[in-house]
Write a structure and sequence with these properties.
The complex is a heterodimer. Helices cover 34% and strands 16% of the residues of chain A. Chain A is of the alpha/beta class. In chain A, α7 (185-191) links the parallel β9 and β10. Chain A has 17 helices and 16 strands. Chain A folds into two domains: 6-135, 2-Layer Sandwich (Alpha-Beta Plaits), CATH 3.30.70; 146-446, Thiamin diphosphate (ThDP)-binding fold, Pyr/PP domains (Rossmann fold). In chain A, α8 (212-225) packs parallel to α10 (246-255). By secondary structure, chain B is of the alpha/beta class. Helix content of chain B is 25%, strand content 30%. In chain B, β18 (278-281) and β19 form a beta hairpin. Classes of the chains: A alpha/beta, B alpha/beta. The complex binds flavin-adenine dinucleotide. Flavin-adenine dinucleotide is lined by residues 9-15, 34-37, 43-45, 47-48, 80-81, 107-110, 128-129, 154-155, 158, 243, 246, 275-277, 292-295, 297, 324 of chain B. Residues 9-15, 34-37, 43-45, 47-48, 80-81, 107-110, 128-129, 154-155, 158, 243, 246, 275-277, 292-295, 297, 324 of chain B line the site of flavin-adenine dinucleotide.
Chain lengths: 450, 413
């Protein structure tokens, strides 16, 4: 069974305008009477709630049907209703705890959402942003079908997010690639290989921490000179990117070298024993910012690497998170395209179960919470359009909700949480400012557009 | 001798639901399903529609051979389990074969109960529980002018409607003073009774059959009031009893059904039971009762399957809630919960519409409607979760469907 597309409801954006219900009723019955809509929005105090078929993975309506009239479609995941088999017994409505399949008086039988064959009209009718048709599942399925360019059995920690990033980015980028993996978890888990065999199915090399971008520049230029077009990609950690590797990175960016530098940011040197880096956030425990009688975790704020890269006038800079893969893939495509014209930089946040101290199955949840709390912001930037948010930052999750998910923040005092909160707010305001054109980007200043 | 990790006896709702749950957790473990019916899995609930001709017998299969193959499940049909040796962990089949099992699920359901009516054994009568029964009844329809149905439960009422639609003169004889007494009160039943009366179905309520005998080509039914009814078709629908005969000597504790705990385990290690055959905890009083309805068979089967496969997410059985949906002559009756637990906070009935809400404190305990829209599955969940409706009490009583949907969307979206 694959993953499926789904209609999602964001109640905070719903104002009860009923456009979705009118559109659905009209599409299904030819008349706008909302009682016949397969999607039902109900007012609940001042807010709005939803009753609709969830196209469950283990559907009880199907199990409760004595007539084999309901079945989950293997191809699109929709629960199909077969009117020629239905006996109108209504037992499906007993099985559904979501009000998703109901007897309809006009039709004379039960009705339910069929997602309009994958093009739901309710979503199109919603201009408030309260209904979304999530097609992420398709992308997972598609990318899952692409060739994995790493060998099986990499020795990452259990639940490693970075391994997910490596495998999925390279699947998407494809085999026409030369890969640089400077010291860090990525080569450490085996991607550069053992005993003369690489852990990848593409050419890979292991530069020094300091010279990754320079070496990759040389390789790319060499291929260019030979007349061969390849993707030149670095998969580096935040230490390798933001600390000792920054000089060569900054140089390559400034010169506009045609490479894609991906920084996998797990906020520290995790493979060597969890030391702090300049990307480690304020307050975080690491082995070099210990917590004890005097130590209270890191006492400096993280440097904002992706913003620094924006100020290099790069062809493309973006931030991404594995909790939002659709967004990540979209940015990867743009970054690869941009790397044919100039320097592209992608900063992917990668929660580390071992170094951040949280249960391994929580990885994607932690990544999601980071974004939902605006601790991590998703945006992209290019010299022509400036910086644009790719995910709204209104109504964030409380920062405490994010911090408490992680062992590395367990010791925080109220004061420290306050500091982190203030830093997040400052960041949000600054980046929003850029997005709204209040702070013109370096590039726009230089292009005389500001 | 055949060996299987999981042996499931029965191939109906409880069995299939367990099977699904096992496969969610254990994709490879060997599973064998045995059913005494020589048919693909089907539901007894669909049978009234096979009788009427609305559902063709070959289109009611819940799973087909390809499904069993895809899910790597061995399917043995047309063979009954005749004995279980719980010590040796073996089941004996009517075919003579023996199967060694690791874990055993008993999902053998129920069979029609025959009341001790003098003469009943000697006359020709029908019951309705198997596909063969339904096909037989369907074949008898064209020759049926006078039909008598014993029992005004769900089976009897469904059958009576279909017999009437086929053109027969139908009489239903019921001991209780009203139809569907297990699910509806007098006012609600009155709406249903009126619909049947309007279609010419005769209901003899509060009447007991005292004897049956053959009178020429027909069966003569005599009631304790002295009335006689001649029928060319007699259907006995006087309730059901769990099928447990094959368990003699197995050591499995049986009261009215197979006694099970909150994870559907029987008294014997390695043996589970679910569905109509099981006697499990009731939701309201915790006493072990029979609750022979399809949604409970699905629920119990799922728990049994999860427990058997060691699924760590299995939750204890919350207890059985009486509930049902009943459509009759194009009208919809829904019954969720208990009539008797708590106080009636709203009740209205006219000739066409009925709604009753029962609450205990601020918790919903029952909701019953005829031709009134609400979501039974949402109400069931609200009852099971004992959701405190205090803050929305008035709104809930005024508009249960809308208020319940709001609670659902907020609470378990
Ligand atoms: C006419 C009719 C109408 C109904 N209408 C409704 C309704 O509207 N709503 C509702 O909720 N419920 C209704 N029911 C009840 C519902 O069908 C049952 O609750 C449900 O089918 C129980 O499922 P089960 O799996 O426990 O058992 P069953 O469906 O009884 O299945 C038992 C299975 O075990 C097999 N079996 C039995 N003994 C053996 C043996 N010794 N060896 C091997 N296999 C064996 C049988 O072949 C069968 O496959 C109705 C029932 C009937 C008969």
């Amino acid at each position: 069974m694959g993953a499926f597309n789904t209609i999602s409801f964001l109640p905070e954006h719903c104002d009860g305008c009923n456009a979705c219900m009118t559109a659905c009723a009209t599409a299904k019955t030819g008349a706008p009477d909302v009682i016949n809509s397969r999607i039902q929005i109900v007012a609940d105090g001042g807010s709005f709630e939803l009753a609709m078929c969830r196209q469950c993975g283990d559907p009880k309506c199907v199990a409760n049907c004595p007539a084999a009239a309901l079945a989950k479609n293997d191809a699109d995941g929709v629960i199909d209703w077969d009117g020629t088999k239905c006996v109108n017994c209504l037992l499906c409505t007993v099985g559904c705890a979501y009000g998703g399949i109901v007897h309809n008086v006009a039709a004379g039988h039960v009705v339910k959402c069929d997602t309009c064959g994958g093009d739901p009209i309710c979503v199109k009718a919603c201009d408030r942003g309260a209904l979304k048709y999530l097609t992420t599942a398709n992308i997972y399925n598609e990318v899952g079908d692409l060739e994995d360019l790493f060998v099986p059995g990499l020795a990452g920690c259990q639940g490693c997010n970075t391994e997910l990033i490596m495998r999925h980015t390279m699947r998407r980028i494809g085999p026409d690639t030369v890969l640089a993996t400077p010291p860090g978890c990525i080569p450490g888990m085996g991607s550069v290989g053992y005993n003369g065999l690489t852990g990848t199915k593409v050419p890979v090399f292991h530069p020094l921490l300091t010279n990754t971008a320079s070496m990759l520049t040389g390789v790319k230029r060499h291929y260019k000179r030979q007349g061969r077009e390849v993707n030149a990609v670095a998969l580096a950690g935040d230490g390798g990117a933001s600390d000792v590797g920054f000089q060569s990175l900054s140089g390559a960016a400034e010169r506009g070298e045609q490479i894609l530098f991906i920084c996998v940011d797990n906020e520290g040197y995790m493979n060597t024993g969890m030391q702090r880096s300049s990307c480690t956030p304020f307050g975080a425990w690491t082995s070099t910012t210990p917590v004890g009688e005097r130590g209270t975790g890191k006492t400096q704020d993280a440097k904002n690497m992706p913003l620094l890269m924006v100020m290099h006038n790069c062809e493309y800079v973006a931030t991404a998170s594995t909790a939002f893969m659709e967004d990540l893939y979209d940015k990867l495509d743009k970054a690869i395209a941009a790397s044919k014209r100039g320097f592209a930089y992608l900063h992917i946040y990668s929660p580390c179960t071992t170094g951040w101290r949280f249960p391994s199955q929580e990885n994607i949840e932690v990544a999601r919470k980071a974004v939902e709390a605006n601790f991590v912001m998703l945006w992209e930037s290019n010299p022509r359009d400036g910086l644009q948010l790719t995910r709204g930052v209104e109504q964030p999750l409380s920062i405490a909700e994010y911090l408490k998910a992680l062992g590395k923040y367990r010791h925080l005092s109220e004061e420290q949480v306050g500091h982190i909160q203030a830093t997040v707010e400052k960041n949000v305001s600054f980046i929003k400012g850029l997005a709204e054109g209040r702070h013109p980007s370096m590039a726009q200043v230089m292009a005389g557009q500001a | 001798m055949q060996e299987t990790q999981y042996l499931i006896v029965g191939a109906s709702h409880a069995a299939l639901s367990a099977l699904q749950a096992i496969r969610m957790q254990d994709a490879e473990g060997s599973v064998t399903v045995v059913t005494r019916d020589d048919a693909l899995p089907y539901s007894p609930t669909v049978l009234p529609y096979v009788v009427s001709g609305r559902s063709a017998p070959e289109r009611v299969a819940l799973k087909d051979g390809a499904w069993f193959e895809k899910n790597k499940v061995g399917f043995i049909r047309g063979a009954a389990v005749t004995a279980v040796d719980a010590t040796a962990k073996r089941a004996k089949l009517s075919s003579g074969e023996e199967i060694a099992y690791g874990k055993l699920l008993l999902a053998t359901g129920a069979a029609p109960l025959l009341p001790p009516i003098p003469g009943l054994k000697d006359v020709k009568f029908h019951v309705l529980r198997t596909l063969d029964d339904a096909v037989g009844l369907h074949a008898a329809l064209p020759q049926t002018k006078q039909a008598v149905v014993l029992g005004a439960g769900l089976v009897g009422m469904h059958a009576a409607e279909n017999l009437a639609k086929a053109g027969a003169q139908v009489t239903v004889v019921e001991m209780q003073p009203r139809v569907l007494a297990g699910y509806f009160d007098a006012e609600a039943s009155a709406i249903i009774e009126a619909a049947f009366a309007a279609k010419g179905v005769k209901l003899m309520l509060g009447a007991k059959v005292s004897r049956c005998n053959t009178a020429g080509k027909t069966v003569r039914v005599t009631t304790d009031g002295g009335a006689t009814l001649d029928a060319d078709l007699l259907l006995v629908a006087a309730g059901v009893a769990p099928v447990t005969d094959y368990l003699a000597g197995s050591g499995v504790d049986i009261d009215r059904g197979i006694l099970v705990d909150d994870s559907m385990r029987t008294s014997v290690d390695g043996i589970w039971a679910a569905g109509d055959v099981a006697q499990a905890k009731g939701f309201y009083d915790g006493a072990k009762t029979l609750n022979g309805i399809l949604p409970e068979a699905v629920e119990q089967g799922k728990i049994a399957g999860m427990a058997m496969a060691g699924d760590p997410t299995v939750k204890p059985y919350p207890g059985g809630v009486p509930l049902n949906t009943y459509t009759f002559f194009g009208q919809q009756a829904v019954s969720v919960g208990s009539q008797n637990e708590g106080e009636v906070v709203r009740k209205e009935a006219d000739a066409k519409r009925y709604l009753k809400i029962v609450m205990q404190g601020n918790c919903l305990t029952g909701i019953f409607g005829i031709n009134v829209a609400f979501d039974p599955g949402v109400m069931w969940e609200i009852i099971l979760r004992r959701i405190d409706l205090g803050s929305v009490r008035e709104a809930f009583i005024a508009d249960p469907q809308k208020t319940a949907r709001g609670i659902m969307s907020r609470t378990w979206r």
